[in-house]
User: Fold these one by one.
Assistant:
Number 1:
Amino acid sequence: MTKKEKKRTRNIIISAVLTVIAVLLSRIENLHPAVSAAVYLLAYAASGLDVLLKAISGIRNGDVFDENFLMAVATLGAAALGDFREAVSVMLFYQIGELFQSLAVNRSRKNISSLMDIRPDTANLETEEGLVETDPEDVPAGSVIIVRPGEKIPIDGVVLEGSSELNTAALTGESRPRSVSEGDDVISGCINTEAVLRIKTTKEFSDSTVSRILELVENSSLKKARTEAFITRFARYYTPTVCIAALLLAVVPSLIFGSWKQWIHRALSFLVISCPCALLLSIPLAFFGAIGGASRSGILIKGGTDVESLADIGTVVMDKTGTLTNGTFSVSGVYPADGATEDKLIRCAAAAETYSTHPIARVLREYAIGMDLPSDIAEASETAGHGVKVRSSEGVILAGNGKLMNAEGIPYTPTDMSGTIVYVAADGRYLGFIRISDTLKASAAEAVRMLKTQGVKCVMLTGDSENSAAAVASELGISDHRSGLLPEDKVTHVETLITDAAGKSTVAFAGDGINDAPVLMRADVGIAMGALGSDAAIEAADVVLMDDDLTKIPKAMELSRRCMRIVRENIVFALATKAVCMILGAFGAAGMWSAIFADVGVMVLSVLNSTRLLRKTE
Amino acid sequence: MKKRFNIEVDCAACAAKVERAICEIPGIKSASVSFVTQKLSLEADESAFPAILDECLKAGRKVEPGFEIEF
């Protein structure tokens, strides 16, 4: 409990005890009523003094109609009508409600922070006097720290000594461990599971991944959702409106039917019901819950507005290389010609590339590891844009594109497959070709399928050639793709899609965040993939996926839609309850007591409803 | 530039009131107050910050006596 909460609790207890005494005193027959009235007054002062003071300062500031004013008028009115007990009890329950609100919010704030249980407590700093347990904030960049198994890496750095497995689940939601050894970069927040690591820090704590993530999540509630802004504005008109309605309720029927006291009393209950706090509280709490829940799955959402945009996504635009594909090349097919064997084709190709530094050469060499390559390789020559030529025990081997085959007069069968095609010939005979292409990410097909099931249009944009773009698109089932685009073309294309959506749905762009900053910024929702450790991507994007699992995009959308549903439920529920109580109050069926219970009850339920979002989404 | 501060504010409606009051202070480009996380974000010129923070505290206290800023 905070100091304020303690003070409030104390006042509530004092006031409650005084109220009980006053009730008992009022039952003593021969006692002058002024005695119990005086105790009631003390009880009222204990619980209601700060409400009265706030109401007065509100009036002085020209900001008359707030909940303090409502409560002050309602309770003072009840007292003026002679019902001291009601006046004191309503104030007391109002204070209990406020206390509960404060406790509930602190509680959910703590829950969300503990979900993000990545903040390291200490760092084991290596000094001349040996290991010193230090506050991570006091460790300068370039220090050497020791992380034992079971401990969190406190600061971003690079491994000097040791190799181990890291658990990144708290950061990425991914349970598969990541192995690191000497020379690897490590990020703070991961848990070291296997062996001791000696790490040289490359950043200060405040710039480390952990601090940046925590800051992002904690500050997300400052980027307010449109719904929240709307409700705040709504409350500004709602409260005065209810006050006027209460005034009319007190005056008009009384003029017609008489019985002033009864109608004034009903009007006062009306005022109590109109308190807007539950409504104002439940909405930011729901957004915060959604953002906290998402961060547990390795999805960082920067603010309430982004949750709203995520919920409305109609089109997801994805970059190809590095987003849908791994951006690394590998052999995707070996096609021997008639009369040649696959084995010979691979062995000759790898032998031809022995001395080449071309990236394709490395892929081929790695593919042939463990095979018995032709020996006596000599006279290797490489022609840029054609390929390589070597002499070996298998005769002269040629490996390259169609131009090389033409130049050397080898009859071959051209293919129109996508990717990089390496034709191979040995001793004047054509052996076939090997296809090398970028590999699709394991999660890409599943993600596209999930998006389509959710009715989302998928578009792929790439700077790559039409040939390889079409191959990836058809393999993933993406019907719309554009190839050969420059970064600025991507921006134009996303803009067109945004115009087409005409504000009815939003357009998301998912990229690896390295070259895509302008598109990430332009899209309604910029999603940066695999951003663990990349500051630029975290800066430019609205949503940051800590690893490169594409299925987190549909998952984030689903969570956001759930959040919006809960927000709507809270709004409808709070307003409906208030409306029902107001009508009942106006007809005298609900008194001030039920009004204050309705107010606290609505708040409790909407807080509980919001915290549903913290449950982990699978 | 944008800076963030830990604050103390009592209820959701109070937070909205404080936010409105702070937004009206001259020199502040934008301000946001969150009840849920008890944070204030301010956008203003770097040089203006120390003076503006005092004003924020004053403006906030005026509409919400329990308002605090942790410097």
Number 2:
Amino acid sequence: MRVFLQRITAGVQSAGFIHPKVVENQEEVKMKKSIILGALTIAGLSAGAAAAGTLDDVKARGTLNCGVTTGLVGFAAPDANGEWVGFDVSVCRAVAAAVLGDATAVEFVPTTGKTRFTALSSGEIDLLARNTTWTFSRDTDLKFDFVGVNYYDGQGFLVPKALGVSSAKDLDGATVCIQTGTTTELNLADFFRANNISYEPVPIETNAEGTQQYLAGACDTYTTDASGLASTRATFENPGDHVLLPEIVSKEPLGPLVRHGDNEWGDIVRWTLNALITAEELGVSSTNVAEMATSTTNPEVARLLGTEGELGGMIGLDADWAKRAIESEGNYGEIFAKNIGEETPIGLARGLNAQWTDGGLLYSPPFR
Amino acid sequence: MTLQVIAAILLALALAYLYSNLAANLRAAGLNISFAFLGSSAGYDINQTLIEYDSQASNFRAAIVGILNTLLVAFLACITATVLGVLAGVLRLSNNWLVRKLMAVYVEIFRNIPILIWIIIIFTIMTAVMPGARAYLGEDPERGLLGGLFAFTNRGVYTPAPIFTTGFGGAEGSGLNWLLVIAALVASFFGTRFMTARADKIQGETGVRPNTFFVNLAIWFVPLIILAFLLGLSWDMPDPLANRFNLRGGIQIGAPLIALWLALSVYTGAFIAENVRAGIQAVSKGQTEAAAALGIRPRRVMSLVVLPQALRVIIPPLISQYLNITKNSSLAIAVGYADVTATLGGITLNQTGRAIECVLLLMAFYLIISLSISAVMNVYNNSMKLKER
């Protein structure tokens, strides 16, 4: 019996499965494994990236995989029933309504500032609607396509009132909580360098973590997009004890984005967003869209809602795509008012995000 | 042999397939592998830097800052985990029931809860329990510095920093001063080794061991005192008045470093304690009894007879624990500690989008560090091995 066992062991060893030296050093084995696994993951990741035809994939799957934040009240957060709601969530739902005819056919994938781009380029999500700033390098070097802007934002600073700070330039020497992997991290460095003052960054992963650190006093100020700060402050026990400093230190055009290279899919998302904006401009809302579709005399409304022309067919969808998108979530103004407007706890004014006709920056290209 | 060759060929083929698949897919996605981003400006700031660094420095320098931070926390944690582990391991075999059980509780609690949880628990407790930095600030602070020297805040611990006012680099100071101090310490180390060896020799020849304690003390401290005098040692105190947000001056040991260091130490210490216990129990009881029969006192039995033999069993698993500490330190980002995973594998990766390159570099770094630790510890292991003649 013993001889038999010895033979087996020797056989296995000579086959190269167990090298005596490798057995001695298990760590080495682990590491080799992790290299191979890593390579596999990378190879797998990019295999997804290469796949084109997102529209067909989404239709075949029957759901839209949409990347959102891990939780930012007003923009994207699960409500009391576990349903995702928010300003960015509405974009996902509108696209799902346009493409699949069902605004609930969305699989929401929570992403952090760090994981969002990998999730999109690997094909894990079809669309990223996660208050992401449109920048040159993200659009070009990272191979993404920003399809538009759904919120014009800027970076601000939140401080406790008790600190007695009235300007961001008074923050010399302060400890600053900052979400890592975001453009705000770079703006922050630029702002303090330009004003020749010092600070100490505390990098954090998620908004929840940042809130906790800020409230515990581990940092003097929390900086991110002003809309995000307003949303975060609304969740505090005593929102009145905290103020947003007047300085807005950067331009942050936030918008949904898709992978570069699949222009058909990019067009669908772009024009769904434009449809929501145009609908507000033309006075089409979720309540009157059905009626407008049948009775309108305005040719642009008729083209938008598919009663005239062939716009839907041009992007590979049916004639009612925009009608469904507007029906499900409302037009841009409704989405804004419902999630982050002045009536909500977040209380953001339209400001730059008003229609161009009202002095804002929202300006959709025409539907024709 | 034939089987080995076939296995090797299959493995090579599999790797080649993975590589070609990767290359083809990257090409199809229009991406290319390039390390040019390492030279471009990083653009972000880091809170703990052991070398000079600002947001205009290159991504490569940011990676070096991260690497040094990783090495720092790994080094500190290896030392404290070993001390803790050896103590707990020895005490687990104590004759005192209470001590024995307490150590068992320590080991079981700490090694059975994931390290990430420990890191977060310790950090959360620190930020929640310790006073804010502002409690120490101003003309009439809520809290005074402990002994006028130390401040304990939820952002970290502040201590006085030694500075050299008349050494190299004048009042500004320079790294050369520190090199001198390190050189003096190394010289002292070998000096004491020599004195101990000499004492051993004399003891072997005459049977009387000369007292080396005071000589060794002098070898350690006299050069340092002379250096301190020559270089004009002075202390930079934490200053509560310089800034309205934070203490300025002195050394700040950040809360993330403390949390990570502590968590790695107590967690890995529990594993090392078990290794030490196993090692001690592997030494046959006859050895202890023989030593006792020779009239050696119990404490010396442990240090002169049992532990040297136990080390042969302890060291190989200890290497694994050191490797674990180094690799587990990559959980630093959970508390915002700027280790290499957080700088190169986190912020740089994100800002440049060069995920594959960054991950490859990270893998190479951890591999090199782990293999180096293995190599050094194996040399030590070989020197401790039973010498068969």
Number 3:
Amino acid sequence: MANITIDGKQITVKDGSLIIEAIDQLNGDLPRYCYHPGLSIAGNCRICQVEVEKMPRTVIACNTTVTEGMVIHTKSGKATDSQKYALEFLLANHPLDCPVCDQAGECKLQDYYMEYGAYDPKFNENKVKKSKKAFSIGPTINLDQERCILCSRCVRFTDEVTKTHEFGMFNRGDHTAVDVYTELNNKYSGNVADICPVGALTDKDFRFKMRVWYLGKQKSVCPGCSRGCNISIETEKSRPYHLKKERVMRLKPIENPEVNKWWMCDEGRYAYKSIDIGRIEKVQARAAGRLEETTWENALVAAGKIVGEAAAQPSRWAFVTSSQYTNEELFLQKKFVKDVLRINRVAYSWSFDQGFEDNFLIRGDKNPNSAGAREIFGAGEDISQVVEAAKRGELDGLIVFGRDLSKYGADTLSVVRAKVKTILYSGVNVNATSNSADLVLPGASYAETDGTFTNFEGRVQRIRKALEPMADARATWKIVQDLAAGQGIIWKNKRAEDIFVSLAMESGAFKGMSYTALDPHGKIWSGPGAAQPAVAATAGAH
Amino acid sequence: MVNPTPNLEPVVSRYFNLPDAWKIETVLKLGAYETARKALAGKPEDVAKMVSDAGLRGCGGAGFPTAKKWSFLPKDTKKPIYLVINADEGEPGTCKDRYILERDPHSLIEGIIMSCYAIKSNKCYVYIRGEYVIPTQRFQAAVDEAYAKGFLGNNVFGTSNYRVDITVHRGAGAYICGEETALLNSLEGKRGLPRLKPPFPAIVGLFGCPTIINNVETIASVMHIGRMGAENFSKWGGGTLGPHLYSVSGHVAKPGVYELPMGITLREIIYTYGGGVRGGKKIKAVIPGGMSAKILRADEIDVKMDFDSLKAAGTMLGSSGVMVMDEDTCMVKALLYGCRFFAHESCGQCSPCREGTGWALKIIERIYRGEGKIEDLDTLLDVAGRMEGRTICVFAEAAAWPIQSYIAKFRAEFEDYIKSGKSAGKETAVHAAH
């Protein structure tokens, strides 16, 4: 350990730490462009200059190792002079096209200029023109070489993290430009727009959709697979419904050293559209063969009748759900099935859950909460078994949460529909099963509710409500609570957190957990009932 | 033109004028490889000690003591140790290494064998400047001859039980690859970008292994130190610092490579050996150590041409490329040439150098076109000062020093040019050896 002083504050850091790491430990605000904790050190932007006592010149904090007794100044005249000079060089050939640049508002050139700008620019020459302005380099990203400050983060990301090597530096001197050797088309391409400190790499999906200062941000967890990458759900904040019904503008990864480091995959990043598009917006009940809009009040009366029938004949009913739901929702569903319906046929998994996986972030299990479902429900049946039973005419009714049985084919669904008298459906998005149900209860999406997911290694992480449920949608735990109330069973949970408190008391695996204890990086469950042993996270940049 | 020193037995340049000295049969008759053969019969430490005793300093530009550099190698490494010869002689005004490669390649091979032995290396890479076509061909042929004779490869000389292999690699023409860590990257097949230091190459060098990088003349000198003895080497020519090759170019009557005792005055180099300024004109300025070195005025040429004296005079010996400018030289144009070179050759990695060299060039181009303003001189100095010392390698300094020194020493001329929009003199500029 080394004892050092930064701007008068004393701190003890690990031997071999870089000055910039020590500064970050103190939450200092030293400017940086090329430095990124997830990438190798490049030392080329030269802006993180600090003054170290007894050293003749300022040094870059990203490539200077601390030594015992080091006294560092990040705000001294000498240090800020060096920082200012570096910034002036970086801006010399920058086009300053901020008014039409999509990075404006989250651009590090803008941000640092406010603090370290020379405010009296001396550059009075013609700027270097690059051959092409903004152009597509792949399905997700556009490149503007003139805005680029050549920090090489994107080059290092594709060399070191994805190892796909699309980016390179071309030419020399002030004609140096970043470009791609081949199309940027890998499963993590969106990250290069995140790490680009300026407007050189912009995300096609987000470009010109929204000025970033209109965005509201909420920390959550990606529901795209069982990794549970931490994300920021970024939504239209101050001008609601400016873009018709699109509320979620983009997802961005949030650093979680235990789960996803700084990254997320493109599949997860661009999957947000189902939050606003293709939603079941209204409560619907089948009348004279057609689904008609109705009110929650009327629907719950109808639901009470359906649930009553199920409870009267539990052996001829099945309950189908999904590990897309939170632990809280699954826990209430289990209580509902066990205490209210007393149905034995419960199924939450099927083969369609499996997809592509790699040895980085993307998991084959495309559900965010399979471990939680397994812990809460036990093994359960496979959904295909329920479907087979229905086809054989062994079932009178199905209660389906969030699963589309037409995955087995439209024919299968119509056979099931013909054999089963009643289908109660609740879910987020419209599908063939919701369309063929007798009663449809719109559920809130993951972006519209609080709760927790348990990832593949047993890490329980919080998701948070970023938006109000769309139209008539209700949080699924509320729907389940309403259904139970229809049978005279009253649960008094007011928030998802209340359910988690019961879960933490009843389930061994969740024992001792609380929402506050889950922050900021989630917690691996360790109770005696843990569904599976914790496996060390394999996500990593190195 | 090669001009060995009158009245002195030449050392490094001794075969420069000998016909066919690049062929092994020619030099074997004169005792080539005997020094290395003897050295390999002794202990490795003896070679290093001899080099240390001779006070040999690196001839590539920095003048770092060679034996001291060798001592930075880790003592008990399990990795291979590499010797890399920097033959990427790109500094404008410098052409000495070319003569060694082209005219006496076996002295370098012999020096390599001895140096590899001294640093416990079995593998040497020789990185030759891309433009050096004939030197590369000659040197490769010499390496092939040495292998054929059993002087390289396994069991050098058949008796040493020591292996030395040489791989010749031709660069692709980038000045920056003369910077030793950029050279290593280039040698590894990567873009020639200087590496961040630390770690230094002696610890983490070529392919991640401990590596010593020495200049051609330095390693050739190792052989001559062995041949002559450390004392005779350093006292050669009546001096204390040994012989040194000076490349003399520009407006001199007899440009060429001169081997002279280190520490001789610049005036002697120009007037006694270089034949004075051509056409009997007066000297206006002299660059003593390659384009990067700060310029000296005519009244400063009594300075001694060794590392320490030139440093004390505010410039540097650098690559010992002496460039003489006569009284008709336009300093604006001379600086324009310098700035154009550095703007073209900046690797583009660090922002101050990448943007600063291009920025400076645009200003000086504007001045040269007659569109300059007096404030531009301060902006130029500002840009130069901001580049200096704030980058990964010393290229930024090399680019800054001409700007700073030309303007500091010839400010009145720059101001006159800006006011009149043209040169007062005949507007000639120095034409360096390259």
Number 4:
Amino acid sequence: MDIPRGYRLKKVLMDHVSMDRTLTRMVHEVLERSRGGEDLAFVGIKRRGDVLAARMARKLEKVVGGEIPLGKLDITLYRDDLSLLDFQPRVGRTEIPFYIEGKRVVLVDDVIFTGRTIRAALDALMDLGRPKAIQLAVLVDRGHRELPIQPDYVGKVVPTSHSENVLVFIEEVDHEDKVILVEAEDAQG
Amino acid sequence: MLRGRDLVALADLSGEEILYLLETAQAMKEVLTRDIKKVPTLRGKTVVNLFFEPSTRTRTSFEIAGKRLSADVVNFSAATSSLTKGETLKDTARNIEAMVVDAVVVRHKASGAVRYLARELDVPVINAGDGSHEHPTQGLLDIFTIKERKGSVEGLKVAIAGDITHSRVARSDIHGLLKLGCQVVVVGPPTMVPPDVERLGVSVSSSVEEVLGEVDVVIMLRIQMERQSSPLFPSLREYSRYFGLNMEKLKDVSRDLLIMHPGPVNWGVELSPEVAYHPRNVILDQVTNGVAVRMAVLYALIGG
């Protein structure tokens, strides 16, 4: 578990067990709202939302049987801050191996913050077709929205200050499941 | 990420930078498979195609690449320009730049003209072919196509056949392939192979047939008929016999040989017409990949 330089650990928000339990609960909420899971598809935002989406799809498959369509979305080409960054983000591959036309897409990301990533993801999804509906599932909502975007399914609401950051670690990417709250070392109190 | 601001030559790039562009091109290619083949990445940016030498394919490819990324693309061709009124290259380019553009794609018949403009202009300059120097995006799309078919390029043996001396495609291919760990053998009549070419790190052969059995890829270059005013070989028929590809020569080649050509092909000279239908011919893949690679280059230079 790497805490970025200049930050210190403030609190562990989730471990492997509580993350798994949270995802299970969210899948049941999705199922409840979709009346049987018909036409559902999961699309995760790279690079951690796609892993969470895969886990949620597997959990749903266990409940309803059959195969739930699953895709990965890379939103780099849709970012609104490319000209503001002092580095150039790598463009990853979008892989949506099914027609999203008529699907009820559950868009999955690890953390929702300003809402700008989700705005980009919505544009990217719309360019691929016309889903019947798009819902948003996030593991952590840390507040500070800059756009009128709210998640439909939330793992945990964590009020944060601007000097804090929520970091999600996923076994498939980071070798362990953990969500932590960190704080900038130069932050006051 | 690229270190430089321009793309003048593959000789300037590191192997890592080339791989970065290929990886980005891979993502761009997915965009080309969609119903809506457009992403908003370069919205509000303007790319000028500044072509001082005729070209349909490369210019169109850059134009499509820019438009797929939502850039405005403007074409400027020498035939209709004030070059015919005696304006210098530098003046023309500076005037275009003064119209507040974000990138200039340049093709010129003089080797070095693009490097000169890259120094003179403040905006990123992309080489679309300068004389017999380099054609870096062609080199990138060739390598991309090889990688796509073979999985990896490291350790492959690639033959390049034709007029090596005058080919900017050959030069870009050689630099790019060597940086990624390929072996390269150049094939052509002695009048078309530079005397010291081994110093680049390639080997030389004088017949296509001789190398076919041992290479993974053969890149056939276009014989430039326009250069035939002072012929570099006795006749087209003789050239075709020693340096062209036909079904007869391909008959015993059982492995996964890839047949490539930068286009436009002189059918019946470097390739016999039946090779157009050969299952290992990836010439049209190269054209598709050209758009993806040029999108990657535009993104890398003006995408943020």
